[in-house]
Amino acid sequence: MKNRLIFPLFIFILLLSCSNNNIDIIEQEKYPLTAFAVKVDGKLYNAKIDQNNLVAEIGGIENPNSITDVVYKLLDSSSTISPDPKSFLGNWVKEQKVTVTTSDNQNYEYKIILTDFNEENADVIFWDDFDVDGIPNESYWSLCPKQTSDWNDEMSESYDQAYVEDGKLILKAEKINDEYKAGGIQTSGKFDFTFGKLEVRARITSYPNGAFPAIWLMPSRYIYQGWPACGEIDVMEHIKQESWIHHTLHTHYIDNLGHKNDPLYTKHPECNFSDWIVYGMEWTADKITFFIDGVETFSYPNLRLPDEDEKKQWPFTEDSAFYIILNMGLGGDREGSWPGPIDDDNLPAQMEIDWVKVSKISK
After folding, report:
1. pLDDT digits (tens, 9 = 90+) for 306-335
2. Which residues contact 178 (CB under 8 A, 6 or more apart)?
3. DSSP state letter for 330
């Protein structure tokens, strides 16, 4: 008799222990809402459903904008749920309500509660704190390809120069067997945004001449063809042992038509870039504003030119979208290299990233 009791008890305890992080949706049969779960980074977080009080609680999720899908099961195929839980994506709050209507026209109003919801994260649409050692989260990032510009002509296309260690993203530029290898990652094809606030906590721990660390954005969707008409937003760049960093915008109006002072297109604030700093950029329909540790350092306005289509001053419209690039580039000896010749003796160059966050701007 004792053995017969132990086995069912073991199964019951096992089901309880898997209530939030099981890979399969957990069903409770013969109830209007049989099962409910949300997906984050491919993992299901199952709701613990109190069928007496019609409450479904989901734990382990502080940032509701990390939820990418909703999975549920109703009593039978004739039952319906309203509103569609997928409509909550991007609009989650701590409590949501849904009504399940069964085949006999009975209505049951359930509360869906995110028990660990953090109000501070309500507007966060992208977050990575690099808390897992190894390759950066491949759902968010890919390696920057090797091409011919100053910033990417030495890209290694290897995670040996772009890896996560001790809760930090390490971006490195070094020389191995007489070959330069530089690291960089980007969200191209995986995440972009239109209007919002980007914040990156970073420090540049080694910066010999020729090093070219940068935090910046390029368009995945654009209104004007070709660079610089498509637009570029440089949140932070550093070169040549300077005691300051660069905030810069690139457009057809600025680069091709030469309007670099009306309005000013760049600013060079001094800062302790070898220590941890939060570099920020806020993009609205009216202006792009830059910050260092929350203090505004520079702003570039939308002039709303009557001949905008010709002069292309503002490619940063609601019809565009930009992705994030984090890189440690290298200069070189070729003519016009902005970062300048590389100081081989003091390599590697290194930038570390603590976290990256993109938030919606509260209206």
Report:
1. 999 999 999 999 999 999 999 999 988 777
2. none
3. E
